[in-house]
């Protein structure tokens, strides 16, 4: 793609992101984006097949950075238990901060998962794959509890479901008058889980 083409695509994405942040996905339309970007809707369709395709590109921009940071943790030289705690803390904090401060963009993730779209499913699988890599290292080095990798993976998602499942995070943010679980509660739950896995290794 030419530099000019990339500039047009970036302009479309910038306008679409502003629309989503202001009004949510439900009011995003190709026509409105095209009007604000100063082009015809036919030109927008040259770059994005549909409103859904446009939304998935916006979602991918956020998830790509998060997944890169999670991947950096898995590749660090730290002990597996430290990596596990850092990985889970980053994932939970990123979801919570996005849901609280950029809720309409966070909703793109739950919408993609609900619809079974590849952008959401690929992210969920990528998170699981990276998590399993850390757990495998911990089991292999005997830092984590003496049970198989899948059981530890399931335990992690069971214990921290409220903090690392996008739908659970969204429900917490959406409850009228209910406070979402705070940073200290996330930290405490994560620390207890990791310490329990380490203590049970023998």
State the helical fraction.
Answer: over 70%
Distance between the termini: 56 Å
| Distinct helical segment count | 11
Please report the total strand number as a whole number: 0
- Stated plainly, the CATH topology of the largest domain is called Tetracycline Repressor, domain 2
Relevant CATH superfamily of the largest domain: Tetracycline Repressor, domain 2
| Global morphology | elongated
On the 0-100 scale, what is the average pLDDT?
A: 91
Low-confidence stretches: 1-5
Topology order in helix (H) and strand (E) letters = HHHHHHHHHHH
What's the structural domain tally?
2
Describe it for me?
The protein is mainly α and 202 residues long. It has two domains: 48 residues, Homeodomain-like (Arc Repressor Mutant, subunit A), CATH 1.10.10.60; 144 residues, Tetracycline Repressor, domain 2 (Orthogonal Bundle). 79% of the residues lie in helices and 0% in strands. The chain has eleven helices and no strands. α4 packs antiparallel against α5 and α5 packs across α6. The longest helix has 24 residues. The N and C termini lie far apart (56 Å). The N terminus is likely disordered.
